[in-house]
Specification:
By secondary structure, chain A is an all-beta fold. Chain A has one domain (about 20-90). Chain A has strands at about 15, 20, 25, 35-40, 40-45, 50-55, 65-75, 80-85, 90. In chain A, strands 2, 3, 4, 5, 6, 7, 8 and 9 form an 8-stranded antiparallel beta sheet that branches. In chain A, a hairpin with a 5-residue loop joins strand 3 (about 25) and strand 4 (about 35-40). Chain B has about 400 residues and is of the alpha+beta class. Helix content of chain B is about 40%, strand content about 25%. Chain B has helices spanning about 10-20, 45, 55-65, 75-90, 115-130, 145-155, 165-170, 185-190, 195-200, 205-210, 215-225, 255-270, 305-315, 345-365; strands at about 1-5, 30, 40, 70, 95-100, 100-105, 135-140, 160, 240-250, 275-285, 290-300, 325-335, 370-375, 385-390. Chain B has a 5-stranded mixed beta sheet with strand order 5-6-1-7-8, sandwiched between helices. A 4-stranded antiparallel beta sheet of chain B has the order 9-12-10-11, sandwiched between helices. In chain B, helix 6 links the parallel strand 7 (about 135-140) and strand 8 (about 160). In chain B, helix 4 (about 75-90) runs antiparallel to helix 5 (about 115-130) and helix 12 packs antiparallel against helix 13 (about 305-315). The mean pLDDT of chain B is about 85. The chains are: A mainly beta (about 100), B alpha+beta (about 400). The interface of A and B includes residues 1 and 60 of A.
């Protein structure tokens, strides 16, 4: 393989919009988010829409498999979370 | 003039075997990047079973079903060959790059540096081995064709010398297929029942000219070991190159177009006042193999708008076959910019003002904090795949 003529990637040059960010989530017995940690404090959340699942790029080396949840904290605007079924992690994302 | 011919037969296959030694001795077919896929190169084992260049892969596999078929890795082949040419350039200042795996070197006057021409040829083979870990064959003769015939007569790692004055005798028993002439001439020689070079050499110039016109004279010269074709030393054209490494593989053509536009913007200051005749897009794909697309323009182009259009067309019409991990843009064969009167108007002024502001911000912060939002896959269900922010460069 030919080595790259350039240096390390500069993340400033190209950015993705709506990149997900890691978030701490607690789930209830059904696996649905019940608590969420925002700005260092835990908040109870309730589901405001039925969860939806996406499975994409299963033919590639980095498949995408997620279940999205639209939740509302008790004292804040609604937000979107997803459970990454590949890495088994939670993330918050603008949808 | 004493010329050395250095050859690495079936070069793409040799490079693939170097990368994956378990392929040695196996029938191997390398496809090209066009559609329908055709044979770019094949190993000797596949060749002996009837596989020929320019066959479709389907045809080739019907001849040799057990062959391993690999996609091409043009960037690797070219980089490897360039390293060989650079190394040969250390031995002789005049190297002609005939094709991948085939080069001529002017070795006139080098005899004083070596015990004899055999030692010189061995040094050339060792040079290639050091540079690319590939075994080359070397032939030395008076002129290009005798050198080529000598180099073709020996196997990898071997050399063959045709002493001055012995060209005709050396070439006599060889097949006419070795002659660097047009296919229609070879076919005609076949029809005339002339199989060996000696069969052609015994004919007179006027007899050959009667059959082939002026080309007959060159044919007679070649058959008699006279090749007046001059060596054309390779030139090292000035090249501008920029590369973007991607954090994750990108498959969308629109993203690639956006990235190529950004690469072009990065080159713009270096390109100032000059125009490019050749545009080369290279990518490293998800599989680790490379992709390349070359575009030679009829006239040198310097306008960013025109270059952007060419990049867009190239990526739309000849997209990489897989998702890519990096994209490089090279502008080559640079020339002076030819004058063209552009319309001056409000739009250009605003554009210049914007560029100036971005330039100042870049100087202040070390990078451009201004971004353009580019739709990539607005229909995608994955939010982060829908749009990207591209640094607005000047």
């Amino acid at each position: 393989m030919v080595s790259h003529p350039g240096g390390s990637p500069d993340p400033r040059r190209i950015r993705r919009l709506k990149s997900p960010g890691a978030v701490e989530v607690e789930v209830n017995a059904e696996g649905v988010p019940s608590r969420l940690r925002l700005r260092g404090a835990w908040h109870d959340v309730c589901l405001i829409r039925r969860p939806w699942r996406i499975d994409q790029h299963w033919w590639r080396a980095e498949p995408v498999s997620r279940i999205y949840y639209r939740v509302a904290p008790e004292d804040g605007p609604p937000l979107t979370l997803y459970r990454d079924l590949v890495t088994k992690t939670w993330a918050r994302q603008e949808y | 003039m004493r010329i050395a011919f250095v050859s690495i037969p079936r070069f793409p296959c040799a490079v693939e075997v170097r990368r994956q030694p378990s392929l040695a001795g196996q029938p191997l077919i390398i496809g090209d990047a066009e559609q329908p896929k055709r044979v770019l190169d094949c190993s000797e084992e596949a060749g002996s079973r009837g596989v020929r260049g320019d066959m479709t892969i389907r045809q080739a596999l019907s001849h040799c079903p057990e062959a391993t078929v690999l996609p091409p890795d043009p960037v690797l082949y070219r980089a490897t060959w360039e390293s060989v040419l650079d190394a040969l350039g250390e031995v002789s200042p005049e190297i002609e790059d005939e094709d991948l795996g085939r080069a001529y070197a002017n070795v006139d006057g080098l005899e004083g540096h070596y015990r004899d021409e055999k030692a010189l040829a061995s040094h050339l083979i060792a040079t290639v081995l050091d540079a690319a870990i590939l075994e080359a064959a070397a032939g030395i003769g008076e002129g290009k064709f005798p050198a080529l015939a000598a180099g073709t007569a020996c196997g990898p790692g071997e050399s063959c010398i045709v002493p001055a004055g012995a060209e005709r005798a050396f070439l006599a028993p060889l097949s006419i297929r070795l002659l660097p002439i047009e296919v229609r001439m070879l076919t005609r020689l076949d029809l005339l029942g002339l199989d060996r070079i000696s069969d052609v050499a015994t004919l007179t110039v006027s007899e050959l000219m009667g059959q082939f016109g002026f080309a007959g004279e060159r044919l007679w010269q070649l058959a008699n070991g006279i090749d007046l074709d001059p060596l054309r030393p390779r030139k090292l054209p000035e090249t501008l190159q920029a590369t973007t490494l991607l954090e994750s593989a990108v498959a969308g053509i629109d993203v690639m177009i956006a990235i190529s536009g950004q690469l072009l913007s990065r080159m713009k200051p270096s390109l100032a006042g000059r125009a490019a005749r050749e545009l080369i897009l290279q990518a490293e794909m998800e599989s680790g193999r490379s992709w390349e697309h070359r575009l030679v323009m009829r006239e040198a182009v310097s306008e960013e708008q025109r270059l952007t259009f060419l990049l867009r067309s190239a990526l739309t019409n000849f997209p990489p076959p897989q998702a890519i991990r990096s994209l490089s843009l090279r502008l080559s064969s640079l020339t002076g910019e030819s004058g063209k009167q552009l319309t001056l108007g409000q739009k250009q002024r605003q554009q210049r003002q914007l560029e100036e502001v971005i330039r100042q911000l870049k100087t202040r912060y070390g990078y451009s904090p201004v971004y353009r939002c580019v739709d990539v896959e607005p229909w995608s269900v994955i939010p982060e795949d829908r749009q990207i922010l591209v640094e607005s460069d000047v």
